Amino acid sequence: MDPHARLPDPVPSPILKHSPSISRSLRSAADTSSVTFAADFRSPSKPESTSPSFDSFRTARSRPSSVSRSSTRRSASERAGSQRDLRDEDARFVYINDAPRTNAPPAMFPDNSIRTSKYSVLTFIPRNLYEQFHRVAYIYFLILAVLNFVPQLLVLSKEAGVLPLAFVLGVTAVKDAYEDWRRHRSDKNENNRTASVLADGVFRPKRWKDIQVGDVVRLVANETLPCDMVLVSTSDPTGVAYIQTINLDGESNLKTRYAKQETMSTPPEALAGVIKCEKPNRNIYGFLATVDLNGRRAISLGTSNVMLRGCELKNTVWAIGVAVYTGRDTKVVLNSSGAPSKRSRLETHMNREIIALAVALVVLCSVVSLLAGIWMGDHVDQLGIIPFFHKYDYSGAAAHDDGRYNWYGTGAQVVFTFMSAVIQFQVMIPIGLIISMELIRVGQAYFMVQDNRMFDEKSQARFQCRALNINEDLGQIKYVFSDKTGTLTQNRMEFRCASVQGRDFSETDGGEEDGHAVQGKDGVVLRPKTAVTTDPKLAALLKDGMGAKASRARDLFLALATCNTIVPIVEDTVNPAAKLVEYQGESPDEQALVYAAAAYGHKLVERTSGHIVVDVFGTRQRYELTTPPVYCKIFASQFLTAWQPLVKLFCFV
């Protein structure tokens, strides 16, 4: 059967089947001959084979990484949600575009303001002192200051015993107050950001903190979501929106969200109904809800229909959603642990050392007090003539006329001597060390912030020291643990070779080819952002080759460019006549395949929920989709100048 045989009409059956598995096979359904390829995950520490296997397409990581676990978590949560019904007592009812009714008693949902600060004006002093006295040294110096106020134990002046401790507490309190003031300022800036909220049929600016459950919110490209909302409409006719969840799960790849067609067909000002959703929870990969529009049949909603606070709208002109969770009920806030009181490893070590020194001090003072008690018991009559020894009766009785010391008994004198010795030997635990450490931390933070080598020119942002108590821990790191999702690695796949009908194309020209430059309709040149090493023989076969092998090779790279969930994003460059195309997707191996296709002349330049546009050596080809991303139909349209309309079947199995 000729793979290019003309069909009378495009068939409505699925034409493209996509399966994001690691090992894949590509077969042309129009012919018994096949082209296969497989992805091989390799570590750079392992040498590559000098004789690559045939009928394979290999990729290798520049650094170790692992497949993202998000898809597994999402699928599991969605299955769990679909297997249980949402009962009324376990549900939240959100009336669309009717915030007063939604928030009326007994609901009383929280406002959309957030708070990450630790203190308020009333709680700062007691709470800060409570946290500071978790340090053993501070408790020790507080005891000494109290003992110094007892007349029988007075060794230093009362002020001399209090001032060092007060200074240390004051410096630490000022430092903690400054840190918390920055949190208050950040909270204020966050809460006072504005978003477009529907009011009286018109979208008006509204501060984030004033957004309520039930409000209809409109976002534009690159805006951050102010709350958790159900997507009801987008600029895409098929209801697709793309978001970036880097603030939630650390993944920079774009995620796809969909609006229901029932809500897409209704103008936002005319949208009315009730959303029945689950109560707030911490699961960012699961969402269970239904929407009832004006008494019609309830429409089920899932994770693919909700956008969470902290995400950014990308590659979408605008999107409209209904707020379902606000403020402390949002998933990002529920998953945050607040502002903890962090203590460095050095501080923990100092606490142990101070306890050991305190034990040694107690032993030393015990020995001194016992020996002093024995000696004073033998020289009671001579105590009055000892210089610097108190001679007064603090019990209230008159002092002896002869100036003799009023004897309180051996036991009491031992206790008095022990306490006095503790005050006199307090230098064993130097308070100056504590003061110096606090001042040094402030200085370290200043120099770290002002370090030009830590300045990010791309974002024009300097290093931020958010916790002054743990500066020294940066120099104590021995082991770094990573879940290998790109935190420490580039999480990048690289195209290596391909095999077409038994012939292995793995030779390279020693350089990197960044793909064919494509000139758009407006004259702007598009170029892939990532360079790919190419095989000159394979490139020549794709561009000028004839016969079945060339046809199979073109089918291979056409499938690589179309059978994926990649979204092309165009970025500006210094040259206004040239732009870079970056391919965003959830799977790094899909990104590698699409970049490889672009390097070999099959460049993905546009993707919507309804069609894909691929530039094949300068010729634009448009492929219509039916139900992306799993099953879809592709056929050549008016962009195909050399070919007749036909149907091609690519299957990933």
From TrEMBL:
One of its GO terms (molecular function) is ATPase-coupled intramembrane lipid transporter activity. It comes from the Eukaryota. Residues 75-85 have a biased composition (Basic and acidic residues). The active site is at 483 (4-aspartylphosphate intermediate). InterPro entries: ATPase_P-typ_cyto_dom_N, ATPase_P-typ_P_site, ATPase_P-typ_TM_dom_sf, ATPase_P-typ_transduc_dom_A_sf, ATPase_P-type_domA, HAD-like_sf, HAD_sf, P-type_ATPase_IV. Its cofactor is Mg(2+). It is found in: Membrane. Residues 62-74 have a biased composition (Low complexity). Keywords: ATP-binding, Magnesium, Membrane, Metal-binding, Nucleotide-binding, Translocase, Transmembrane, Transmembrane helix. Its EC number is 7.6.2.1. Residues 94-157 form the P-type ATPase N-terminal domain. It catalyses: ATP + H2O + phospholipidSide 1 = ADP + phosphate + phospholipidSide 2. One of its GO terms (biological process) is phospholipid translocation. The chain crosses the membrane at residues 136-154, 160-178, 354-375, 414-435. Residues 20-36, 46-56 have a biased composition (Polar residues). It is an enzyme of class 7 (translocase). Residues 1-85 are annotated as: Disordered. GO terms for cellular component: plasma membrane. Residues 192-257 form the P-type ATPase A domain. ATP binds at residues 483-485, 590. Belongs to the cation transport ATPase (P-type) (TC 3.A.3) family. Type IV subfamily. This is Phospholipid-transporting ATPase. It comes from Aegilops tauschii subsp. strangulata.
